[in-house]
């Protein structure tokens, strides 16, 4: 067995375990909050390690930044589930951000502006988007009886991303000739992107049909599911490109090696960092009109 075959086996095993853990996490609200708290912490910890190692004159407070990000996720979950109904739940997060700014006065780091910029980039690029998964997962029941946990809606975002990646890879490998964005990601092609998008729309239509087939139809109808699939597809691709630009700026290939055969946490969740906010905005938009 050569190294290429071994890498394929390792990548496949990691992929199966990853998908299994993600699906299992969405089956229970507490499991989902715990899972994404860990994911948020690992992503920010990885991000701050990269910036401190590869960005010039940058020393982000890794521990406080990670704790703040995890707290933001838990705070949004507590607010969305009704455990805490007051803005006070955000006060510790705000204080931690203030601390990260004020502490630069005493650290003596060479470039405080770089430290502040990279610190806040981690919060806005990673912590905030991941915390919005709570908006997709928890909503008030139609009859006003309480908070309802929606397994399908947040899980579907990742299903669409996985389908898009698979469709883009297969189509791009077979038909890819025109590069999508060669300066940032030479491997991506327009043909692959279109192939992934078509497959996502088909899967979205199937999910929409099945979700509304029973006596308790989903909040979204089939056409709205297709629209959600399109949004996730477009913004997921942009999310992938944003992370590729981030890595190229730092001069690295992978964000880490925590996931054998798949790279780091940011490599695995890059698409979702743009797709989750897009999905939230889409859902609020269709309920307004």
From TrEMBL:
InterPro entries: PC_trans (IPR000374). It comes from the Bacteria. GO terms for molecular function: phosphatidate cytidylyltransferase activity. It is found in: Cell membrane. Pathway: Phospholipid metabolism; CDP-diacylglycerol biosynthesis; CDP-diacylglycerol from sn-glycerol 3-phosphate: step 3/3; Lipid metabolism. Keywords: Cell membrane, Lipid biosynthesis, Lipid metabolism, Membrane, Nucleotidyltransferase, Phospholipid biosynthesis, Phospholipid metabolism, Transferase, Transmembrane, Transmembrane helix. Its main location: membrane. The keyword Transmembrane applies. This is Phosphatidate cytidylyltransferase.
């Amino acid at each position: 067995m050569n190294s290429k075959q071994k890498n394929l086996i390792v990548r496949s095993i990691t992929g199966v375990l990853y998908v299994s853990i993600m699906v299992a996490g969405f089956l229970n609200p507490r499991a989902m909050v715990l899972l994404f708290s860990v994911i948020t912490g690992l992503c920010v910890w990885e991000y701050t390690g990269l910036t401190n190692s590869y960005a010039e004159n940058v020393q982000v407070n890794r521990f406080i930044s990670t704790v703040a990000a995890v707290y933001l996720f838990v705070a949004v979950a507590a607010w969305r589930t009704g455990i805490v109904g007051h803005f006070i739940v955000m006060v510790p997060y705000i204080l931690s951000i203030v601390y990260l700014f004020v502490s630069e006065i005493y650290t003596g780091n060479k470039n405080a502006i770089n430290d502040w910029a990279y610190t806040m980039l981690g919060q806005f690029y990673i912590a905030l988007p991941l915390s919005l998964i709570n908006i997709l997962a928890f909503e008030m029941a139609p009859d006003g009886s309480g908070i309802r946990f929606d397994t399908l809606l947040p899980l579907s975002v990742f299903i669409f991303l996985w389908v898009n990646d698979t469709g883009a890879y297969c189509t791009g490998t077979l038909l890819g000739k025109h590069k999508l964005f060669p300066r940032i990601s030479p491997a991506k092609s327009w043909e692959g992107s279109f192939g992934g998008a078509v497959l996502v729309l088909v899967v979205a239509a199937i999910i929409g049909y099945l979700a509304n087939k029973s006596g308790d139809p989903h909040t979204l109808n089939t056409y709205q599911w297709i629209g959600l699939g399109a949004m996730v597809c477009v913004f997921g691709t942009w999310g992938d490109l944003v992370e590729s630009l981030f890595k190229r700026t730092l001069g690295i290939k992978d964000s880490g090696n925590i996931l054998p055969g798949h790279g780091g946490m940011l490599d695995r969740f890059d698409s979702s960092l743009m797709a989750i906010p897009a999905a939230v905005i889409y859902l609020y938009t269709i309920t307004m009109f």
